[in-house]
Write a structure and sequence with these properties.
With 198 residues, the chain is an alpha+beta fold. Helix content is 29%, strand content 30%.
């Protein structure tokens, strides 16, 4: 009878303690990369708190302080929402990111007459082409071909495909977009400054 009382008491203590949601260490590691990507090089980042997001199935919030070069220390947050939980295949797919960041304005335009095989993006400073495949080398080839296609088809400075290929090899900065899922991704950033007037 004593063991029953002990078990019941232990159960009540654990329930009252609120054994809350457990955070996946790999998801925490992935989310900790976000603040570094949101701030310029040389920013000092100090983590304040890492916690699961109440009511979300697989989300982590990181509160942190960031001091950008030549600036004061400011409080920030990043909430990472993942595709799955600990034992699911898509647990490391970062499906959404929430933060209060002043320069994060995204405009999506669908141009019906434009036929593209792969997505493209544009920032104030770059045009971005993309490629995805199960083989990272093939994804790189696709992103590079897309850069050549973009440069050959743009109207600002008309050029042949050979000239576009040469310019891509000199000016495009190709980076790995993702490798966590079956499909790997590469994006090539083409600086707009290559077409500035002198």
């Amino acid at each position: 009878m004593h063991w029953f009382r002990f078990t019941a008491l232990l159960f009540l203590i654990l329930a009252a303690a609120g054994c809350g949601p457990v955070m996946d260490s790999e998801q925490v590691r992935t989310c900790r990369l976000v603040p570094q990507a949101l701030h310029p090089d040389g920013t000092q980042i100090r983590e304040i708190r890492v916690a699961p997001v109440p009511g979300e199935r697989s989300a982590i919030r990181i509160d942190y302080a960031a001091q950008e070069p030549g600036s004061v220390n400011r409080a920030h947050f990043a909430t990472c929402i993942f595709g799955g939980t600990t034992f699911e295949r898509d647990r490391l797919d970062l499906t959404a990111l929430e933060t209060a960041y002043k320069e994060m304005n995204v405009t999506v335009e669908v141009i019906k007459d434009m036929k593209l095989e792969w997505p493209r993006a544009e920032t104030k400073t770059h045009w971005i082409t993309m490629g995805f495949d199960e083989d990272l080398n093939e994804a790189m080839k696709i992103a590079t071909r897309e850069s050549v296609e973009f440069l050959a088809s743009q109207k600002m400075v008309p050029m042949s495909r050979d000239e576009a290929y040469a310019l891509t090899s000199m000016a495009a900065d190709c980076r790995v977009t993702e490798v966590v899922d079956i499909r790997k991704g590469v994006h090539c950033m083409i600086p707009k400054s290559i077409f500035t007037k002198k």
